[in-house]
């Protein structure tokens, strides 16, 4: 869904336009596949897998001057630990789901690579408590805001910024 008003577009649409050519060139996949991955693989494998790349075979027909056909490729999937065994057993169904997503037989084989999938969260230190002067300054900055949720959010942001420890 696009929203155009006076030349404005959604940020997600702009990001997809930027990312799709890069992903297609580097990994042979697009943002639609990555964004829909959870629905394609289902709840059993959504949390422990991610698509890495699609390796497309060389097109010998183009070199011979024949009609161009799309040859199915090999999808490389990153999977965590022992879940790769279960994914290998569900490989046939997974290929059917992926080809159903594309609307044509795009994948002929799945290659499973064991590696960590979850992004590790960076540990953040808690901000130091504010002294009386810093508290008063922050209260004076947010005191006139009437919208309570906005006021609380700005207060949290102010505490995080003022309370940052200098390195």
- The number of domains is 2
Class of the largest domain, according to the CATH hierarchy?
Answer: Alpha Beta
- Say what the CATH topology of the largest domain is: GMP Synthetase, Chain A, domain 3
Radius of gyration: 24 Å
Written as H for each helix and E for each strand, in order along the chain, the element string is: HHHEHEHHEHH
Percent of residues in β-strands: 5-15%
Q: What is the topology, as strand order, of the major beta sheet?
A: 1-2-3
| Biggest beta-sheet profile | 3 strands, mixed
Proper CATH architecture of the largest domain: 2-Layer Sandwich
Backbone structural class = alpha+beta
Please state the average pLDDT score: 79
**Helical run tally:** 8
The residue ranges in which pLDDT falls below 50 over 5 or more consecutive positions are: none
Q: What is the 3D form?
A: elongated
Q: How many β-strands, per DSSP?
A: 3
Cα end-to-end separation: 45 Å
Helix share, percent: 40-55%
InterPro entries: DciA-like, DUF1159
Protein name: DUF721 domain-containing protein
